[in-house]
Write a structure and sequence with these properties.
The complex is a heterodimer of chains A (about 325) and B (about 325).
Chain A (H helix, E strand, L loop, with lengths): L8 H15 L6 H23 L3 H8 L7 H8 E6 L12 E8 L2 E8 L5 H6 L7 H16 L4 E7 L6 H5 L2 H14 L4 E10 H5 L6 E5 L3 E3 L3 H8 L6 H8 L3 H6 L5 E3 L10 H20 L3 H14 L11
Parallel strand pairs in A: 3-4, 4-5, 5-6, 5-7, 6-8
Antiparallel strand pairs in A: 1-2, 2-3
Helix pairs in contact in A: 1-2, 3-11, 4-13, 6-8, 10-11
Chain B lengths: L2 H17 L5 E3 L6 E3 H6 L15 H9 L5 E2 L18 H12 L5 E8 L2 E8 L10 H16 L3 E5 L10 H5 L1 H14 L4 E5 L5 H4 L8 E5 L9 H8 L10 H6 L5 E3 L1 H16 L30 H6 L14
Parallel strand pairs in B: 5-6, 6-7, 7-8, 8-9
Antiparallel strand pairs in B: 1-2, 3-4, 4-5
Helix pairs in contact in B: 5-7
The complex binds zinc ion (ZN).
Chain lengths: ~325, ~325
C-alpha cells in the first residue's frame, strides 16, 4: 500500500482505478487488459510530469515520505555479514543512530547512519531519527573503530536534526556534535556519506564531514527546517513553502554549491515507489565514490577532506546564484 | 483611561527626556534599575545593582581584553555576499547593509592581536548586535583567519562567541561553517598552541555545536545562556517547564561542559594567567626568584615546601590575587 502525498492525488486515483479493474479481471477480456495498460501508461506520464517539476517544498515532502529507504533496509540490502554495534561507552545506547561492521561488495567497512524507523512502534524506538548525545558519541566510536582497523566508513543520513530535549542539552548535545564533526574531519580512512532523505542541520553534518557527499535526487539538506526558518523570518510556519525555496535545500542546489559531489537519480515517482531499486543505485554510487579513495593514503584522505570543506562558499569556487 | 494618563504623563515624560539626555542613563534589562552610562562603561557593562552581564560589542570586547588601542586589527578576507540571493520579507542584502550601518562592522566578528601579560594572543570576538552574531561565510572566514594568525604568530587563540547560531540566510553554506571552523581551531591545537573559548551570552545552535565546544579550556561569563537547541523549541517538544537555571553558564559547569565560570571583572586576569600557564610552563629567566634577595632564605630547588614569592605571580602577568573570590558566583 502506498501512502500518497497531496500532490500525488491524481496518481492515487488512477492506481485505485487500476486496482478496481484488476479485481474484475477474471470476468473480463482483452478490453480490460487494454484499459489497464492505458491507465498504467497514464500513471507513468503523470508521475513524470509531477516529479520533473517538484518545487523545493514538494521535495521536502518527498524527502520525508514515510516509505523512504530506511537505514535498516539499506544495510540489509547492501551489507553482508553485518554486525550491529551499540552504545557510547559513557552513558547509553541511542537507537536513533545505528551502525556496525560488515562487508560492502566484499570489503570490510564500518557503517553508520540515522534511523527514522518504519512502523509507529519502530519510529518511537528510534526517536524518529533524532539523536541524543549518546548517538553522536556512538558515531564517533564507530569512526574511531574504522580508523583503528583502516576500514572505509559509510554513512547514511536521514534526520530532521538532533533531538531538542533537556537531557540531551545536559549531556552535551552541542559538544557531542562538535566532536563528531571533528573526528570525521581527522580520519585517515575513506569516508563517504549519503544524504538519503532529510539532511537536517547539525544532526546531519555530524555524520557527514566526509571525503565524498552523495545525495539522492529528492533528498534535501538544510541548516534549518523550512518550518523553523519561516516561523523566525516570516513569523509564521505557514510560509514554509517560501522558506524552502529561499533556503535552496534541494540536492540539485547542493551539487551546484559543491556541498554534494553527486546526485543519485531516483526511480520514477521517487525512492518510495521502488525502495530496493533506489538502494541498489545508492550502493553503486557509494562504490563509485569509494573506488578512488581506497587507493589514497591516510594523510591524503584527511587533506582532501579538509580542502573540500575549506573550498566551500569561496569566491573562487564560482558559486554565484543564478 | 483618564486625562491624566492619556495626556499629562506623556507630556511629562517628554519634558524629562528633554532635560536629561537619555543616552546618559541605561536601564538594566534584568533588574530595571537605571545606571549612569559612564559607570556602566567602567564596569564593562555589568550592572552594579544585580551583576547582570550585558552584552559587549566586538570592539568593546577586544578593548576590554587587550586595553583600548592596545591591539592590532587582523584583516579579514573578502567573501561572497548573499550567495543564495536570499529573500524573506526583506532582502538579505538589505539586512546586511542595515546591520553594517548599525554596528559599523563588516560582519559579526572582529579579530585582533595583542598581548596578555606578555604572551601573544589572537582573539576573535562576536558581535551579537550584528544579526544576532549569526555564523555565515564571513564569520567562518573570520574564525579561520584568527586561527591562521594565531599559528603564524605562535599565539594563543581566544574566541568569544555570542551568537544565535547559523545564519539562515546563507542556507547550507552557513551549516558548512561548522566543519570549516572546526578545521580552523584544530590547526591551532595541532600547532601545540592553546585554544580557549570564552562563552558569552548567548552561545547557541551551530556555533556551540562546532568550534565553541572544542576549546582546551572553556570559560563562561556569569549567567550566559549556552546551549544547542533554543529554549522555546525544547519547551514545545517536551511540553514541560524547563528546570531553573537551564542552559546558564553555571548549569553547564555543573553538567561538565564548562571549566570556569567567571565574573567579567575577573575575566581578563583569569585568561592572562591561563595563557601564561600553558604557553610558558617554565617562568621566564628574569622572573626567577633571585636567591640573594635580602631578608628571604634562598629557595631550595627540591624543597617541596618552597614558597613561591608573591612578585613571581605579578611578573607572570597575572597581577592579581589568586583568591576564591575569582571563582564563580
Ligand atoms: Zn541589574
Amino acid at each position: 500500500m502506498h501512502s500518497f502525498l497531496d500532490f500525488e492525488q491524481s496518481v492515487a486515483e488512477l492506481e485505485s482505478k487500476i486496482d478496481g479493474l484488476r479485481a474484475t479481471q477474471g470476468m473480463g477480456g482483452v478490453d480490460i487488459q487494454d484499459e489497464i495498460k492505458r491507465l498504467e501508461d497514464k500513471v507513468q506520464n503523470t508521475l513524470q510530469e509531477i516529479y520533473e517539476n517538484l518545487d523545493p517544498w514538494r521535495k521536502v515532502q518527498v524527502a520525508r515520505h514515510p516509505a523512504r529507504p530506511k537505514l535498516a533496509r539499506i544495510i540489509d540490502r547492501l551489507i553482508e555479514d553485518y554486525e550491529p554495534l551499540a552504545g557510547d561507552r559513557t552513558f547509553g545506547e541511542d537507537a536513533a543512530i545505528g551502525g556496525g561492521i560488515g562487508r560492502f561488495n566484499g570489503r570490510s567497512v564500518v557503517v553508520m547512519g540515522t534511523e527514522k524507523g518504519s512502523t509507529t512502534e519502530d519510529r518511537l524506538k528510534h526517536n524518529f531519527g533524532m539523536a541524543r548525545p549518546e548517538g553522536y558519541r556512538k558515531a564517533r566510536r564507530l569512526m574511531e573503530m574504522a580508523e583503528r582497523f583502516n576500514l572505509p566508513l559509510l554513512s547514511f543520513v536521514d534526520t530532521a536534526g538532533a533531538y531538542p530535549g533537556v537531557g540531551a542539552e545536559e549531556r552535551g548535545q552541542a559538544e557531542a556534535i562538535a566532536r563528531a564533526i571533528e573526528t570525521g574531519l581527522q580520519l585517515r580512512i575513506p569516508f563517504v556519506a549519503a544524504i538519503v532523505g532529510e539532511g537536517g542541520s547539525g544532526g546531519a553534518i555530524a555524520l557527514a564531514a566526509a571525503n565524498r557527499v552523495l545525495m539522492l535526487e529528492h533528498a534535501v539538506y538544510s541548516v534549518i527546517s523550512p518550518e523553523g526558518c519561516a516561523s523566525i523570518l516570516w513569523r509564521s510556519a505557514d510560509h514554509a513553502k517560501e522558506a524552502a525555496t529561499a533556503l535552496r535545500l534541494t540536492a540539485q542546489e547542493m551539487e551546484r554549491l559543491k556541498v554534494a559531489d553527486r546526485v543519485i537519480e531516483e526511480p520514477l515517482g521517487g525512492a518510495h515507489r521502488d525502495v530496493d531499486g533506489t538502494i541498489d543505485r545508492l550502493g553503486a554510487a557509494m562504490q563509485n565514490a569509494l573506488d578512488p579513495l581506497v587507493v589514497m593514503d591516510g594523510d591524503r584522505l584527511r587533506q582532501q577532506r579538509r580542502a573540500r570543506f575549506l573550498a566551500l562558499g569561496q569566491i573562487e569556487s564560482g558559486m554565484a546564484a543564478e | 483611561m483618564s486625562w491624566l494618563t492619556d495626556f499629562v504623563k506623556p507630556k511629562l515624560r517628554a519634558l524629562v527626556r528633554a532635560d536629561v539626555p537619555e543616552d546618559l542613563w541605561e536601564k538594566c534589562p534584568n533588574c530595571g534599575q537605571m545606571i549612569f552610562q559612564k559607570e556602566l562603561e567602567q564596569l564593562h557593562r555589568v550592572c552594579p545593582h544585580c551583576d547582570h552581564h550585558m552584552r559587549l560589542g566586538a570592539k568593546a570586547r577586544l578593548d576590554h581584553l587587550f586595553g583600548a588601542e592596545q591591539w592590532e586589527s587582523i584583516a579579514l578576507p573578502e567573501v561572497p555576499l548573499d550567495p543564495l540571493k536570499f529573500r524573506d520579507r526583506q532582502r538579505y542584502g538589505d539586512r546586511l547593509k542595515a546591520a553594517q550601518s548599525k554596528t559599523g562592522l563588516k560582519d559579526a566578528v572582529l579579530v585582533g592581536a595583542g598581548d596578555l601579560g606578555d604572551v601573544p594572543v589572537v582573539a576573535a570576538a562576536f558581535d551579537f548586535g550584528f544579526m544576532g552574531g549569526s555564523m555565515g561565510i564571513a564569520v567562518g572566514e573570520a574564525v579561520y583567519a584568527a586561527a591562521r594568525a594565531a599559528v603564524a604568530r605562535k599565539a594563543a587563540l581566544i574566541i568569544f562567541p555570542s551568537s544565535g547560531g547559523a545564519r539562515m540566510q546563507e542556507g547550507i553554506l552557513s551549516l558548512m561553517q561548522m566543519p570549516r571552523t572546526v578545521i580552523a581551531v584544530d590547526d591551532v591545537k595541532n600547532a601545540g598552541l592553546p585554544y580557549f573559548v570564552v562563552l558569552t551570552d548567548p552561545t547557541t545552535g551551530g556555533v556551540t555545536a562546532s568550534f565553541a565546544m572544542l576549546g582546551d579550556i572553556h570559560v563562561a561569563e556569569t549567567g550566559a545562556v549556552i546551549g544547542f537547541a533554543g529554549q522555546r523549541v525544547i519547551a514545545e517538544t517536551i511540553r514541560e517547564q524547563l528546570p531553573p537555571g537551564f542552559q546558564r553558564a553555571e548549569y553547564l559547569q555543573e553538567h561538565g561542559m564548562v571549566d570556569i565560570v567567571v565574573h567579567r571583572e575577573h575575566l581578563v586576569g583569569t585568561l592572562t594567567r591561563l595563557v601564561d600557564l600553558l604557553i610558558r610552563p617554565v617562568p621566564k629567566q628574569e622572573a626567577l626568584p633571585a636567591p640573594e634577595k635580602p631578608g628571604e632564605p634562598a629557595a631550595e630547588e627540591d624543597d617541596p615546601n618552597r614558597i613561591v614569592p608573591v612578585d613571581l605571580a605579578a611578573e607572570n602577568g597575572a597581577g592579581m590575587a589568586n583568591g576564591p573570590d575569582e571563582k564563580a558566583r
